[in-house]
């Protein structure tokens, strides 16, 4: 349904914003809680620092200082305080990591499935025991609130816990296809694999790949985001404490050169990637060109449809939480609300509820959302908000220029609500910030047309109290993950990720049964053991038919 251009309001509230002008000295800008957490992380963990020291490579079971000549500053996005420096892992160091993984594979792939199961069981215990350290690292480096950082870890832990069922997941098949002749199929590992993780889930995404890849008998090269590698480094150390042999998991760092090395190295058999469109397409094409399996989760534009019969209170609270939680930096965030019929009148109440969200540093009491990851991200988000103004959109709630007391240098963008049309740039592009686009539709069919015409297919939701309406929506919507009165329908790991269209590249998705499929290859053996062969003295030259 073509949407008419929205009337431009008489006055729009436009505020200026400031970006941080450089990082502060270690610890200098942190509040008392953050400082104590940073000091504890630096004292207790070998591979990471939150007090200005270098992040290390993890190669062959050792946390190794890099000899890199290029280092990347990791700063607290709420204060611009320097936390650590991350190396652009050198080509020599990368080769050492691949060599360590290749050497470890020779014995790890021959270890019993019960040995690998025990490792996963011990890992999940250690992750729970040290959850505070991982969550605190995420708050410091990524900017999430502490409860949200705990959720980041717990969603990854669910994958770890599911991987404890690896003996059952790897069961093969056998059938007697002819007298005394058996055919069996079993699952075998691929070899050395790689995982490239994004900044927005520093714990969950590494934990999508580590337990599944390793429990199936592979070894792994992990490249966490250069913006927030601390959680991954703590997880790597916990893997070691859980009894993982040296070289089975290795961690390298960096940007494009390290990514290209992963794509090009002939010893690496498969790549898992979660991130943006540009990087994902590059990794998929470059990795496939060298014969690798690749699974790549890309961008998204997730729509939530509000029907007139929806439970209004539940629907509005759900959309606000899904749009603005984690400062909108989730690939499954609700970034578009499609208001059907009379629900157009709900916009003022939606805005009023969004205004009540508390934006502040992640350790602060009652924080609902923190800063966005970087000044550059803030600039991009505010530019997209400004584009809506220029194209005639209505900015019902403007988060630009948001100020947080005691944190003047944070990358703050407050909750923003924009009434727009599908032709506007703010709708067409992924914003990846605390911005909710509101689109009006007359009917459910119009809402379905809007969603199905969008190139992305990660997730969608509908809020209704009608089973018939929900059934029609679920059947006709062209999106891989559907929520009915559920705003963020990410499947639990007994299922598999199922985003589609332009949100995913590859044939086999993440975790669950499909995750096992991605990290294994089938070997089929046909064996003949005939008792009479022990005494027979004449060969058969006829074509074998197995009848």
Largest sheet: 7 strands, mixed
Helix share bin: 25-40%
Terminal Cα separation, in Å? 61 Å
Radius of gyration from the CA trace?
A: 26 Å
- The tally of beta strands, per DSSP, is 22
Strand content: 15-25%
* Side-by-side strand order of the widest sheet: 14-15-16-13-12-18-19
Give the helix tally: 17
- SSE class: alpha/beta
Detailed description of the structure:
The chain is an alpha/beta fold and 547 residues long. Helices cover 36% and strands 20% of the residues. The protein is built from 17 helices and 22 strands. The strands form six sheets. A seven-stranded mixed sheet has the order 14-15-16-13-12-18-19, with helices on both faces. Helix 3 runs antiparallel to helix 5 and helix 3 crosses helix 8. The N terminus is likely disordered.
Task: Output the keywords.
547 residues, alpha/beta, 36% helix, globular, 22 strands, 6-stranded mixed beta sheet, 7-stranded mixed beta sheet, 20% strand
């Amino acid at each position: 349904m073509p949407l008419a251009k929205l009337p431009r309001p008489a006055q729009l509230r436009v505020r200026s914003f400031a970006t941080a002008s450089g990082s502060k000295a270690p610890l200098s800008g942190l509040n008392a809680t953050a400082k104590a957490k940073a000091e504890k992380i630096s004292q207790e963990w070998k591979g990471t620092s939150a007090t200005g020291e270098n992040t290390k490579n993890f190669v062959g079971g050792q946390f190794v200082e890099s000899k890199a000549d290029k280092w990347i500053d990791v700063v607290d996005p709420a204060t611009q305080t320097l936390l650590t420096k991350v190396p652009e892992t050198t080509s020599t160091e990368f080769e050492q990591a691949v060599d360590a993984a290749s050497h470890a594979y020779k014995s790890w792939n021959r270890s019993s499935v019960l040995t690998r199961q025990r490792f996963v069981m011990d890992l999940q215990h250690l992750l729970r025991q040290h959850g505070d350290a991982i969550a605190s690292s995420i708050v410091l480096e990524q900017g999430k609130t502490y409860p949200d950082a705990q959720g980041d870890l717990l969603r990854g832990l669910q994958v770890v816990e599911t991987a404890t069922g690896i003996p059952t997941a790897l069961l093969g098949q056998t059938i007697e296809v002819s007298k005394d002749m058996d055919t069996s199929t079993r699952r075998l590992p691929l070899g050395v694999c790689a995982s490239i993780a994004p900044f927005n889930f520093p714990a969950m995404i590494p934990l999508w790949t580590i337990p599944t890849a390793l429990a199936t008998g592979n070894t792994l090269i992990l490249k966490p985001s250069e913006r927030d590698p601390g959680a991954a480094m703590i997880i790597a150390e916990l893997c070691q404490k859980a009894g993982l042999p040296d070289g089975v998991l290795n961690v390298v760092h960096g940007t494009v050169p390290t990514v290209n090395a992963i794509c090009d190295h002939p010893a690496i058999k498969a790549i898992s990637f979660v991130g943006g469109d540009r990087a994902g397409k590059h990794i998929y094409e470059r990795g496939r060109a060298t014969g690798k399996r690749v699974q790549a989760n890309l961008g998204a534009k997730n729509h939530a449809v509000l029907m007139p019969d929806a439970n209004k209170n539940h629907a509005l609270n759900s959309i606000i939480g899904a749009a603005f939680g984690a400062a909108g930096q989730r690939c499954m965030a609700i970034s578009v609300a499609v208001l059907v019929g009379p629900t157009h009148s709900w916009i003022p109440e939606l805005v009023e509820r969004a205004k009540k969200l508390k934006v502040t540093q992640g350790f602060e009491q009652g924080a609902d959302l923190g800063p966005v990851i970087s000044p550059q991200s803030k600039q991009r988000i505010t530019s997209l908000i400004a584009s809506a103004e220029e194209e005639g959109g209505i900015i019902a709630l403007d988060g630009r220029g948001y100020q947080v007391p005691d944190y003047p240098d944070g990358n703050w963008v407050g909750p923003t609500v924009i009434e727009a049309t599908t032709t506007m740039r703010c709708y067409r592009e992924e914003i990846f910030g605390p911005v909710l686009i509101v689109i009006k539709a007359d009917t459910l069919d119009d809402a379905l047309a809007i969603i199905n015409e969008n190139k992305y297919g990660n997730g969608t939701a509908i809020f209704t109290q009608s089973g018939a309406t929900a059934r029609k929506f679920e059947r006709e919507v062209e999106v891989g993950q559907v929520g009915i009165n559920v705003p963020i329908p990410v499947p639990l790991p007994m299922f598999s990720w199922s985003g589609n269209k332009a949100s995913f590249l590859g044939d086999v998705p993440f975790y669950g049964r499909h995750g096992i499929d991605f990290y294994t290859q089938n070997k089929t053996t046909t064996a003949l053991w005939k008792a009479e062969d022990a005494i027979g003295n004449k060969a058969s030259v006829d074509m074998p038919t197995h009848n």
